[in-house]
Amino acid sequence: MDKHVLILRFSALGDVAMTLPVIYSVAKANPDVTFTVATRPFFARIFINPPANVSVTGIDPKDYRGVTGTVRLLHRLASLRPTAVADIHNMLRTWIIDNFFRARGVKVVMVDKMRQSRKDVLRSGARQIDFIQRYCKVFRQLGLNFELTFRSLIPEGAVLPEKVEHPAVGIAPFARYHTKTYPPEMMRRVVEILCHKGVNVYLFGARGDEAATLGSWAAEIDGCVSVAGKYPIEDELVLMSRMDLMVSMDSANQHLASLAGTRILTVWGATTPACGFSPYGDSRDLISVRPCQPCSVAGTASCPKGNLECLRTISPETLAEKIISMINEKNND
Questions:
Q1: What are phi and psi of 246, to 5 degrees?
Q2: Order of strands, edge to edge, in the sheet holding 264-267?
Q3: For the packed helices 316-332 and 184-196, what is the interaxial angle rounded to 10 degrees?
Q4: At 125, is the pLDDT very low, low, confident or very high (cuts 50, 70, 90)?
Q5: Could you give the CA distance from residue 54 to residue 161 in angstroms, rounded to a whole number?
Q6: In this structure, what CATH number is given to the domain that contains residue 176?
Q7: Which DSSP symbol is given to 87?
Q8: Among 67, 146, 222, 315, which residue's beta carbon has the most beta carbons within 10 A?
Q9: Torsion sign, CA atoms 163, 149, 258, 98
Q10: If pLDDT is split at 50, 70 and 90, which confidence band does 221 have?
Q11: Helices 66-78 and 92-102 meet at what angle, rounded to 10?
Q12: What is the pLDDT of residue 291?
């Protein structure tokens, strides 16, 4: 029987993005194996230019609620006839799926998310976790040999949705949680400094309030362009691939930029890269301070100290200087 690996990872966008370098690498190294990724329909759109032996099936968990919904989901996945399951999500829904396939003699390997170790990092900071390597371990335990060879989703000749002027810095200033977001009024000042020094700034964000805020910055600051909410995610990735540098919070955008092969500067607040959520690749850097950081594995709605000291300690001038330094390093390579 031909080998067919079912890969489970339903959320969130940044977490799914982190799996692509591993999935693409293992697939290219094992062309005789078929891989099917089960994920949410919107997340399926970031699987651009996949290897020929990778397909993606969009599954919306809202369509499979309750006992009857779960049964329908199991039947749908069973119809794919996998010979192995790579559970790189490790949550209640995938536990049920795993046990369903184990009962049918299918080999299942589940990622170790090191939940307790991540909590220990907050207390001692002693251990560095790498989720990319955690995902690699799952596939190797399925008997698949490979090295991480992924570089970018975007081919060199990809068509840009709009012209990019250089030097170009993409800034994605928002994150899901307040404690992971550099104060917007301070980031606006960063944009002003960069544009005053001749850097072209492209603002990335979601539709709605984020797009409205970034649109107002672009309207008021010469040399600043907002692309927030203007393009589908596939086009945003192409734009990111043409940036000299992407500046992001600890959010999905740092992982999307890594898929585009772009150098990344991540601004860390309440969270820490030691918990395993650094973007893929070597072209990355971080800026953070540690009077009280970290205080959360994934971020919280409010700051325990009430003043967001970890991020406010980073002045706009310091951040702008770091960005300019990284641009100059790239241009001098």
A1: -110, 130
A2: 224-226, 200-203, 168-172, 245-249, 264-267, 284-287
A3: 50
A4: low
A5: 27
A6: 3.40.50.2000
A7: E
A8: 146
A9: positive
A10: very high
A11: 50
A12: 64
